[in-house]
Amino acid sequence: MRIAFHGKGGAGKTTTTAGFVEYAAKLYPFVLAVDADLNSHLKDSLGFVGDRVELAKSFDEIMSYLRGARVDIGDRPMIATIPPSMKSRFVRPTADDALVRNYSLISGNVGLLTVGGYERNDVSSTCFHEKLKSLMAVFHHMLDDDSHIVVVDTIAGTDNISTSLSFAFDLNVFVVEPTAKSIQVYRDYAELVPQYADRLFVIGNKVADERDVEFIKERVPAECFLGAIPLSSSLKRFEQGDSEGIAKFRSEQAAVFSKISEVLRGKKRDWTQYLSLLRQTYKWDCDRWYSGFYKSDLAEGIDDGFSYEAAAGLKNETAAAGMGV
Ligand SMILES: Nc1ncnc2c1ncn2[C@@H]1O[C@H](COP(=O)(O)OP(=O)(O)OP(=O)(O)O)[C@@H](O)[C@H]1O
Ligand SMILES: [Mg+2]
Fold first, then answer.
1. What is the pLDDT of residues 211-224, one digit of tens each?
2. What is the pLDDT of residue 324?
3. For residues 129 and 181, what is the distance between their CA atoms, to the nearest angstrom?
4. Is residue 120 part of a domain?
5. CA of 41 to the centre of ligand 2 (A)
6. Is residue 54 situated within a structural domain?
7. Which CATH number characterizes residue 71's domain?
8. Over the stretch 97-121, which tens digit does the pLDDT of each residue have?
9. Is 275 among the domain residues?
10. Domain residues for 216?
11. Which end of the chain is more exposed for a tag (fewer CB within 10 A), N or C?
12. Is the CB–ligand 1 distance for residue 246 below 6 Å?
């Protein structure tokens, strides 16, 4: 299952994602963490060292890997929202998956995939959605179930809803500070995608007292509110160099994480709905831009017989040959 943390800039998305990754690492055999923010800070928050190739820099290679042995599209290019075929390669969020092994930084039972941000030659030319394309394709080829966990740190605001990541996550958790502006970002999101209301939740962060908690509770539906994490002096001490502070802060986050985990356990992905949304998005992408751009009908021939449930019964091809990483 996939959980993404959203919220206003500075609300505590990365801090919360890192805490939840560590929490989940005690419950699951493997956790795949994803830094999908333009400014990548999750690695530092997790205390990981080293580097891996950023997903955004490897779009062609990743698409070629995911293409596998599919024949339905001939030699036409694959764009980020292409629905898989039964002959595609798939991704599983496990330690032995070829794509995970090649692109993630691994520490213990946690792997971290990083999308990556702008570079000099992006100035005045590239938008962040371009960078997210590899990640979208990875999610649309991922055969995860409730024995798996993927935890995503996102870019501030409501940006995700304009990409196919809008339907890629089973839980979208908004991290809100006890301020009207912070809560407004959640409200904007809720208003824009009422169709995904059942996967939208809120947690308070940096709450100083009961009054702060009430401030949030009065402004979000009761069934969406999963609790609040205190404004922690332990975290500040940790960031000032006191290594003990982090354990105390993790214990302050634990009650909320337990609630999130409980909600996650009650979720089942509707693969049929997922595929239908993906097919619709792909068709729009082809009609509005890509078929014209490539001067070829990219929607032609797509494998209509594909289903995620059937694909999940297939054995994944693990050969990483040719990935060159
Ligand atoms: N519960 C908390 N108590 C005290 N400080 C916190 C808490 N949560 C986060 N912070 C602090 O708030 C700041 C912003 O947190 P963080 O970087 O996690 O936010 P973010 O939402 O990921 O920001 P951005 O939008 O820039 O990605 C950091 O200095 C962090 O240490
Ligand atoms: Mg952040």
1. 999 999 999 999 99
2. 44
3. 25
4. yes
5. 6
6. yes
7. 3.40.50.300
8. 999 999 999 999 999 999 987 788 8
9. yes
10. 2-312
11. C
12. no
